[in-house]
Design goal:
Helix content: 10-25%
CATH topology of the largest domain: Nucleoside Triphosphate Pyrophosphohydrolase
Order of helices and strands: EEEEEEEHEEEEHH
Structural class: alpha+beta
Largest sheet: 5 strands, mixed
Number of domains: 2
Number of strands: 11
CATH architecture of the largest domain: Alpha-Beta Complex
CATH class of the largest domain: Alpha Beta
Strand content: 35-45%
Number of helices: 3
Length: 178
Amino acid sequence: MYEKTLSRKTVYQGRIIDVDVLEVELENGKRSIREIVMHGVAVAIIPRLPDRRFVFIRQFRKPMERVCFEVVAGNVDHDGEREADSAVRELQEETGYIAESMELLGPIYPSVGYCSERIDVFYCAVSGKGETSFDDDERIETELLSEQEMDEMIRRGEVADAKTLAAWALYKAKKSAA
């Protein structure tokens, strides 16, 4: 299966995303239109404290019009910044915690039908806590949970963020039994 791109036009350029409209040709020769939200690479982090609790965040999300429970995450902000370095930076900025190690669990693609975003999910052990350095438009609260408490929140339907659910699934598949 393959689609050949015949044309591409950027119809919106924003601070974080662009929107491109592509005309494509399918294998059977038919043509179609694809609308794609273009987004750079991001990172999500599953940080674990020495007492085996995990660090999560809560923040107001305008598209949902509510406070959402999430993994620590953010965009790779700088050209040439390695994803692991971005994860270390985002963890410190949003929570104040310092990463002792950073291990890639794998990539996730939040919505492959219309968005190019890739989120690299990392697991890390954290130690001491320093100061946060939120972006000017961020308001974040930190929450610490055990593995069992997180699993129970998911069972009760209290975690709806896709990147958080996918990141936790990767953690459970690759690290939980270790």
